User: Fold these one by one.
Assistant:
Number 1:
Amino acid sequence: MNTPTTATVNISIDVPDLDAGVDFYRRVFGWQEKSRPFPQMAIVDGNNVMVCIHAKPAGSKPTPSEQTRGYSRHWTPVHLDFHVEDFAATISRAKEAGASIEQEYTKPKAVAFCSDPFGNGFCIISK
């Protein structure tokens, strides 16, 4: 029987401007930059997970066979959920930092469907 390989999980977020991407997630969620191993990549501490923010220009291709990268709002079945203590304050910071709040519900639990200024979707959920 094959034994599964233990894997470490990191998250990667593509943005068109590295400094703007790092600044957005720092302002909204308190993520702190740890290093820049390459000029177009920052490693940030996402509070309990390491996140790689990559500068990738609009129009570039993720792989030779895929469509070009764009930063208008785009849907993907994989996204980040942020469970926060202070829902209202986090929503306020997100708006101030340039996020779009697309839908917001307060019952049975506060939840907001959002996108960052680069078109990446995420949810803010009250703890």
Number 2:
Amino acid sequence: MKTETTPEEARADLPIHSVAVIGAGSIGIAWSIVFACAGINVRICELDDTRRDSALASAESLLSEMEGAGLLSQATAGILERMSVWEELSDAVSGVGYVQECVVEDVDVKRELFRQLDQLTPHDVVLASSTSTIPSSKFASDLPGRARCLVVHPANPPYFLRVAEVVPAEFTSPTAVATTVSILKRAQIFSVHLNSEIEGFALNRLQGALLREAYCLVQDGVISAVDVDTLVREGLGRRWSVIGPFTTSELNTRGGLRQHSEVLGPVYARLGLERGHENPWTPDTINTVAKAIEQNLPFASWEENVRQRDHAMIQIASRLKGFDNPLVQCESE
């Protein structure tokens, strides 16, 4: 017997024509580009005058370089036509079908913002946070509309790294998750679903595991900070950009993961025991790493180094455009 579809369930299958992005920092601009490139109208809300005035110029600069590298299926001007900047939160979210919050990493700020968003939008509009570490239960649990709140944590920047963690709280509805996954798929973002909330989520925990060992290796005098970056950039990073660590293990050893774990499992277990005692990132070690990396950067300005990073990623993406990786399985349409 067919059960009656609720309005919320029906809405999850409807196309979303407009979204609001709250915050015009680097993540806010990045999400705006992702959604606008997918044909969705984007309302960027920013209270700071300087950021608000420069938001569209920042987006245009990135889009123009991406267009020059052949990464866009349409002209920059057409994409920009779908982006607008707003000062008042109530105006920015009026009539949108989805909200992506991109403000500072502060639980009190997010709690107040989500309180306002919950009052200003219908309860079938998903409210997603771009937070890197804070579970939504920390700032949305007391809201009447908490069932539509969750975390959508992107790899940075999402217009190149096309993956985001979808992290629902215990109170998040399946409809809100389905709606979120649908709009991410439309924007060509791989969605990785976490089954439970955990501080730092999965991406930062994986990154943190490597960083913990990297800091220890520098602290122990085994290797320099610059050489750690070289190993990851030229070795692990290049390999992992094509296949992940598990597939790497599967393909590195004849016999696959089982043989790999049989041969190297005991070695990794000993390495884990070796680091079993407390290994904090001491101020001296952090300073040693920071100084080495700072001295190795090509430009004194943080902004210029970020621009050069984006330029390099554009060139890489341009060269990989059209490359069909048979080891990556994508869900068919």
Number 3:
Amino acid sequence: MLAFIISACSSQKTPSNTPESTKEQAGATESLATSSTSGQQKADPDQDFVLKIGWGGSLCEAPLHMAVEKGFFEQEGLKVELIKLASGTTFDAVTAGQIDAGFSLLASMIQPLSNGLPVKITTGLHTGCDKVLVKKDSGIKSPKDFIGKKVGVSSYTASPYIYAKRVLADNGVNVTVKNPEVEFVVYSSADLPLALENGAVDAIAMNDPSATIAARENDLEVIFDSALDEPYKDQYCCSAFVRENIAREHPEIAAKYTRAMQKASAWVQENKDEVAHIQVENKWVAGDAKVNAEVLKTFNYIPSYSKAYEIFGIVAPQLQKVGMLDSDVDVKALQENSFILLDNIPYE
């Protein structure tokens, strides 16, 4: 699969703007006008297009980082501008028209998509990302032990929050809005380990590599891990997307972006130690390259459209069940409308 993705997506040449030579004929003015019109008709509307891509600096964004570092965007003939975004602002940037494409946690996209977020998912990129941590002497060993407890999260829309709710709900713990058996409390990401240490919460849900770093530095126990625990370890967490207008008006730009991201993701799968080194060395990601590489090795970076589509269909009804998605949302229609199959993509 990896070899197919890397080799199958070759660079594409941009059509020339050069007008066709006109036949000699009387009237130089008429000949020039004909030549000019012909050139305009053959001009490539995508030739000077610059795709604005949002990024946040997370470890799992490795395909985006490597698409730049290893020239996968360049191979596709795609001109890009990377726009650094503050944590949690990706969808605001889409709505404001600041970015044309990006990389996002799939579960966190479902509710915004139901509210009209104007994007199309083009491929899934990898599994993993989320962990739930507790103190080693907490007495919490199973989902049922969370009943009556508080869980710290960075926001009520973040992927770790959704993941924690999914695990608890899947194991019979009530996490609906009505009569919930577990309380979720918001803290800044940096303050979550301290909140757990001070007893303000009984557990915390975090993204990697922050979760792994917090576990090591504070001697915490990982009780749920989406990269390792069944059935979540095989469920794709992150995906590539483009704005609806890009998919509609510039489908080849969207396809070039998708191919580059797929090739980069496949390359990450085979070179995780090097990826972690490049990310830290070139300041894409903070942290220790060795630790980051260990985390990356728990993720599956084989890109898959079908797997992303499949997990959307699993998570959306779960969010509806726990009250995070309106009950009147047609989840099947939402799933179908949120994805797009582009031409000349080695889909799996």
